[in-house]
Amino acid sequence: MPGGRLTEEDRRLIAAGLAEGLGYAELGRRLDRPASTIMREVTRNGGPDNYQADRAQQDTSTRARRNNQPQPPAPAPTDSSYGRDPKAVQEFTESFTDLLVQQGLPRMEARVMACLHITDSGALSAADLVQRLRVSPASISHAVGFLEQQGMLLRRRDPGERRERYVIDDEIWLRNLLASLQMNNALIAASRQAATLLGPTTPAGDRFDKSAELLTFVSEALQQAMEKWREHLTTRAKP
């Protein structure tokens, strides 16, 4: 980032510029900073109408001291009765998390998924996830809500238990594919509607028509793959 971290003088210039009615882009040019940096600074410290340089400087220093405090070591995995190398498991967890992020999952959701995957039970409570990932309960709640919508985990409460557990099972990716299939079919319907509306012989209509054809091929392939997988599981289960 040009210029490094914002200084106390930078914050005074921001406050003065806001009082003049300057926008984030102009303030960024004056301070040689991206407009997004100025926007984050102002938003985090009271907004355009309540931004105060002294208070922003003090709050930033407080946050920096808090973040520099040493973090407690991450707890060891509970499922450690198979002679696994904890370091190797940790390294794999990190690489698997990165892979899920590359596939499109937000990082927090990817961390939850990786944590559940390496647990032999495939089930953890919110408190377990908070402890293992060292994040806030709100972060876990948001991530779990997203993953549940995608069909990537389930909520369960065992008889006599008060706390819910978040569970993955052997059909996790099958449910995820089913959710993808449903979304794909919705896109097919929308594309066909657009082609009719715009006219299939027009450039825009033809584009939507071709999109519908491609998505139809994808849906058919996904459906066939799921059917073959179910047949494979049936054959595999036979003695």
TrEMBL record:
Region entry Disordered, spans: 31-85
Coiled-coil parts of chain: none
Annotated transmembrane regions: none
Matching InterPro entries: ArsR-like_HTH, HTH_MarR-typ, IS30-like_HTH, Transposase-Integrase, WH-like_DNA-bd_sf, WH_DNA-bd_sf
Origin superkingdom: Bacteria
Organism taxonomic ancestry: Bacteria, Bacillati, Actinomycetota, Actinomycetes, Propionibacteriales
Domain HTH marR-type: 104-164
Protein name: Helix-turn-helix domain-containing protein
SUPFAM superfamilies: Winged helix' DNA-binding domain
Domain named Transposase IS30-like HTH: residues: 5-45
